[in-house]
Amino acid sequence: MMTRDEKLQMLAAELGFPLDAEIKVGGKYTPILVDGDLAYIAGQIPRVGDQIRYIGTAGETITLEDARSAAAISAVRALALVRNVCSSLDAIVATPRINVFVRSAPAFTEQSEVADGASNVLATVLGDAGTHTRTSVGVLQLPKGAVVEIDFCFRIRATR
To answer: What is the CATH number assigned to the segment(s) 4-156?
Structure first.
């Protein structure tokens, strides 16, 4: 049976996301903040190294399937951040909430289906601990023109 960390490694490889790469941030903030038993993850876009993988608008220049892949990369980034701080994804006890923002064409109404890309990653890697509440909304614009941005909240075991 694969560990959570091995599952993350497998999904990251499928998505072309090297887990040993630096998680770049686009401003003066921290990408992860641990407060007690909660780990808050700043909004993650589908950035791999210096490249934003999916730039465009869902339902216009980006297909639903590509938008789902963008959401999956965002989830992998979030899990990698937790793993980097906690040494293992076994530290994750629960996933109370994710918020999914989809850069959407005016007639695009499949934000929930885009969010499934991230939800599927959390379920695959974390099992029951990946069950979460979520909000998925369409927006006009996102940082760097990315098609998706997702923030996460994880309940973790004490890291010290």
So the answer is: 3.30.1330.40
Other beta carbons within 10 Å of 97? 14
122 vs 141: CA distance, rounded Å: 25
Res 32 pLDDT > 60: yes
Contact 135, 90 (CB under 8 A): no
Averaged pLDDT, 103-127: 98
Between strands 32-35 and 92-103, the pairing is unpaired
Domain ranges of the chain: 4-156
What pLDDT score was predicted for residue 159? 55
Rounded to a whole number of angstroms, the CA Rg of the chain reads 15
- Angstrom CA distances, 45 to 14, 67, 100, stand at 17, 11, 10
pTM of this prediction exceeds 0.70: yes
Per cent of the chain over pLDDT 90 is 86
Residue 36 makes CB contacts below 8 A (sequence gap 6+) with none
DSSP code string of 110-133:
-HHHHHHHHHHHHHHHHGGGG--E
CA angle 107, 108, 113 (to 5 degrees): 160
